[in-house]
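ok trying this again, last paste got cut off
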Amino acid sequence: QDVGMQSRGDSFVTKGFNSWNKKEKLDLHVGGVNSAHNQALKNDHNDVINEVLQKTPENSKLTHPDIQKDIVNAIAYKTTNAIIEDLGSGFFSILVDESRDISIKEQMAVVLRYVDKKGIVTERFLGIVHVADTSALSLKTAIEFLLCKYSLSLSRLRGQGYDGTNNMQGKFNGLKTLILKENKSAFYVHCFAHQLQLTLVVVANKHTDIAEFFSLVSKIVTIVGASCKRREFLRNAQLAKITEALNLGELESGQGLNQETSLKRAGDTRWGSHYMTILNLILMFSSTFDVLEMIEKDSLLSEQRVEAQSILRLILSFEFSFALHLMKNILRSTTELSIALQKKNQDIVNAMTLVRVSKQRLQMMRDDEWEALLTKVSTFCSKHDIPILNMEKIFVVGVRPRRNAPHITNLHHYRVDLFFKVIDLQLQELNNRFSEVTTELLLCMACLNPSDSFSAFDIQKLTHFAKFYPSDSSETDVLALDNQLHTYIVDMCSNNKFLELKGIGDLARKMVETNKDVIYPLVYLLVKLVLTLPVATATVERSFSTMKYIKNELRNQMGD
C-alpha cells in the first residue's frame, strides 16, 4: 500500500476506505484541485472521511497534486483488491484489445471474466498498459506483467477473447498460440461481435450492388449533415412531416412516440449502427429529399449542386428502394444477436443458440418473404413518387441496356441476383465466421443447457467435456463425474425450481442459491468453465471509450 502520504493523510485514507469496505460502495470523484469542490464531494459521500477532515488543521486541504494522485492511486488499489478478492483462487478468462490514446500511444486494456461466489458471470476491468508495439510477444509480456502485479498466474487462465487480427489469432506466432503453448486449457474464442460485423463487410465487398448501396448511404449522411444549416433544415422538414401526419391521423401520439431523429454515420465496427442508419433514412426519406433539393438549388458550389443532383437521381430509383428495404430486413434478423453480444453476462452456449436462430431467420426470409418484401418496396415507392418497375420487362441498368449484358427480366434480377444472392452470401459468411459453433468443445458445453427441462443433457458428452481441462479434472474426477451426473440429472428433473431455467447463467445462480454447487461440485465446475469462456470484447471496448473521456485533448500529457 505504497500510498506515500504523511501520517495525517494515511489516517484519512485508512479510515475512509475501511468505511467504504463496509458499505461496499464508493461514489467519490476526484478530478480537480478546487478545495471547496473536492471537500464538499468527500463530505457528502463518506461520514467517516468528513469526521476526519473536521479534526484536521485548517491548512490541511489535501489539494496538492501529489496528494490528489495518491488518493486516486489508493482508490484504484482498493478497487482492484476488491476485484481480486471477489475472484479468489478461481480460474478466469481474459479479454484483450489495443487502441491508441490521444497522445498516439498504443494502449492495451485487459478485462477479467469469471464466475463469482454467487454464481454470477462477472467481467471486471483490470487495467490499461502502455505497449511499445503490438507484436504478439510484446502483448504477452505486458499481460504477464499485469497479472503478476496482482498475483494472478497464466496457469489459472481458461479462456482468451480477442479480435481477429494476425497478431492476436495467428496460427504460429499469434498471442493466443503463445499462451496456449504454456496453458492448453486457455481456449481462444474470436469475439462474436467482431465476427458478426465482418459478415456484413464481406457481403458488401462481394456484392457490387450492396457495396454501391452502402457507399451511397454514406454520401447521403455526409452531404445532409455537412453544415448546421442543413441539419436544421432537416429537423424542421421532419417536424413538419410528423405534424402533418398527426393531423391526418396517420401517426399516433403519446409518450415516447415520434421523437426527434437524425441521420448518423454508420460505424465500421458496429453492426447496430448500420441498422439504425437505414431505419432513420426510411423514416426521414422525404425530409432528406427536401434537403438534397435545397442543396441542388441554393448551394454556391457547383460541385455540391452536381453531387446533390446525382444523389437525388439515384435515390429516386426502384433499385435503391429495394436495396434499402432488403438490407433493413437482413440486419433486423440479426439485431437481437448483436444486442445480446454487448451484454457482460452473456454465455457462449446462449450466443451459439442466437447465431443458430439468426441463420434460421434468414433462411425463412429467403424461402417465404419475397412477396412481402416486394409489396413493401412498392408501397414505399408509391408514397414517394418513385417509378415502380414491371417485373416482366427486360432489366436495364441506367438509361439503356449494357452492351453484351444477358437479357434477363426485372424479376430475375431483383429476386435471384439481389434477394437470393445477398441472403445466401450472408448465410455463407455466418457459417464460415462462426465455426466455433460446430467445434467438439462447444457441442459438449451445450449439453449443460437447462432449457426445455434439460433436453440437451448428455452424460457421455459431458464426461468427454471434462477431459478438455486435465488441470481441473483428474482421471479419478472424470470417473466420479459419471456417477455424479446420473444423480444430478434425476435431482434436477424432479425439482420444480430448476425446470423453468432459461440458460446456464440461471443454472449457476440457482445451484448456488440451493447449495447444489456443494452437493455436485464436479458438475458445478463444468458450469463455471462454460460461463468463464469469453463471448465478445464489448467490455474492453467500453474501457477505451472511457479512456478517451479521461485522457483528452486538454489532458493529452497524462502519464500511464
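PB: full thing came through this time. The longest strand covers residues 106-115.
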